[in-house]
Amino acid sequence: MVSSLDGIIAKKDNSVSWFETSSNYEKGVKLTEQETSAFLKTIDCYVMGSRTYEHALELSKSYGWAYGDIPTIVLTHRDLPIERPNVETWSGDLNQLVDEKLRPNYKTVWVVGGAALTKDFIQARLADEIRITVIPIILGDGIPFFDHLQLEQALHLKDVTAYKNGMVELWYEIKR
Question: What pLDDT is stored for residue 16 in this prediction?
């Protein structure tokens, strides 16, 4: 997930212009396209909520489909336009999705959003890790990442990376 420093993952109008940063942190590492590409190759399947999917579809008109040919499962109870052969919808129970579809077929599943879906995975204890990239901006209003989680959850910091552009990636393991 990408977040502002104050924990906002999207403005109320879903604009993403704030994702760009002109910040410079000299001690940071430079994120290369090769590193990003290598990381993305480790992902076997994406899971996303319907609003995230609709937003990704809208962005794909300008930037292309960000998830490539990787299988993508969209959780929804609505009829959505499915424009790619690797995208399917799911409207059942999350535990059933994990037990019947994800665990038997995929090693690394990335829940890409949104906040409600992430909350559901964490509350059901179906998530193993949380990776959040903090962008150096305070938005003050919008959709919070951990809104009404209603669960205390201990985490273990696996890694932290500060980038030249001022972004910081925090990688946590969820403790059982």
Answer: 77
